[in-house]
Write a structure and sequence with these properties.
365 residues; alpha+beta; D-amino Acid Aminotransferase, Chain A, domain 1; D-amino Acid Aminotransferase, Chain A, domain 2; 2 domains; 9-stranded mixed sheet; 28% strand
Length: 365
């Protein structure tokens, strides 16, 4: 079996790529997840051959057999990361090695063939090199990269698949939340939980997100932007939002965030912010924080700020929280000083305007 960490990529150019003029129109206001670049990465896996047939090819539909295992047993994982344009015209990746590590760990949790981390990184670099002209020049613009892998074996037995397809697509991105609002409103889910001990909460698999959609629909129905999930055992401790981690800034300047423990996705943005906060002299506490305490602290003024964080959302202030028995505002309902300072530093490192003292940024070219 081929266990190499590097492969030679075959490149097939798109015969009818989007014109420069049409691309400029699309990039003026791309939103999030609706516009896609010209090319994609495809790598195949089989037990007999290992990883093979690495290609960068025109983006387009793929052929799916109705008995393909992923359609029946949901063996699927994905990642999300971004490429940025720096003021001097270079292209950067931010902590892509951490995405590669998490992708491997997700594969192992889902009993899938782990993609070598260096091959993950190679695939990202290959696609960005070909489609870097799709990075928006607008403020806050980036190229969102979506690596994913699924069970492609045609077989209906319940077992780990023996064949997988790994792919990467890219999407120019602007603001994640509609309208680029200064803060978001959350809905507290009473009836649904995102993950339970022993489950797949720490893996970035589609099933976690599918399970969250009914609660997200409920949140939207109540005029909220996102759902916040509580723990599955006591239904009282804050865990994370539908697709991002959460942090709380107290009146003494300290930050509280729910601890990792198998039910929360170990966010790369989360980890980066905790490092930056500690370097700024901010006390960081990874500890359980109940919804009732959140309400009490917000109403007393002990809680000054709260924000969601993730690759797509970056740092998004939380202005209000609603739910059955919950209706409270955090601070002035908008961005806070600590939130803005951390967002500026993280964004500056990613885009090359703030020195990277951690070796987090890779310049491509």
């Amino acid at each position: 079996m081929n266990t190499t960490t590097n492969l030679d990529f075959e490149f097939e150019a798109h015969t009818n790529p989007v014109s420069d003029a049409d691309r400029a129109v699309l990039l003026a206001n791309p939103g999030f997840g609706k516009v896609f670049t010209d090319h994609m990465v495809v790598i195949k896996y089989s037990v007999e051959k290992g990883w093979h047939d690495a290609k960068v090819q025109p983006r387009g539909p793929i052929q799916v057999d109705p008995a393909m295992a992923v359609l029946h047993y949901a063996q699927e994982i994905f990642e999300g990361l971004k490429a940025y344009r720096t003021p001097d015209g270079a292209v950067t990746l931010f902590r892509a090695d951490e995405n590669a590590r998490r992708f491997r760990e997700s594969a192992e949790r889902m009993a899938m063939a782990p993609l070598p981390e260096e091959l993950f990184l190679q695939s990202i670099r290959e696609l960005v090199k070909i489609d870097e002209k799709w990075i928006p020049e607008i403020e806050g613009g980036s190229l969102y990269l979506r690596p994913f892998m699924f069970a492609s074996e045609v077989f209906l037995g319940v077992k780990p698949a023996s064949e997988y397809l790994y792919m990467v697509i890219a999407s120019p991105a602007g603001a994640y939340f509609k309208g680029g609002a200064p803060s978001v409103t959350l809905w507290v889910s009473e009836h649904y939980t995102r993950a339970a001990p022993g489950g797949t909460g720490a893996a970035k698999c589609g099933g976690n997100y599918a399970a969250s959609l009914v609660a997200q629909k409920e949140a939207i129905g109540h005029g909220c932007d996102q759902v916040v999930f509580l723990d599955a055992v006591e239904n009282r401790y804050v865990e994370e939002l539908g697709g991002m981690n959460v942090m709380f800034v107290m009146d003494d300047g300290s930050i509280i965030t729910p601890p990792l423990g198998g039910t929360i996705l170990p966010g790369i943005t989360r980890a980066s912010l905790l490092t930056l906060a500690r370097e700024q002299g901010i006390e960081v506490r990874e500890e359980r924080y109940s919804i009732d305490q959140w309400k009490a602290d917000a109403q007393s003024g002990k809680l000054r700020e709260a924000f969601a964080c993730g690759t797509a959302a970056v740092l998004t202030p939380i202005g209000q929280v609603r739910g059955n028995g919950y209706e409270f505002m955090i601070g002035n309902g908008g961005p806070g000083i600590v939130t803005e300072k951390l967002r500026a530093e993280l964004g500056g490192i990613q885009r090359g305007t703030v020195p990277d003292t951690h070796g987090w940024v890779e310049r491509l070219g």
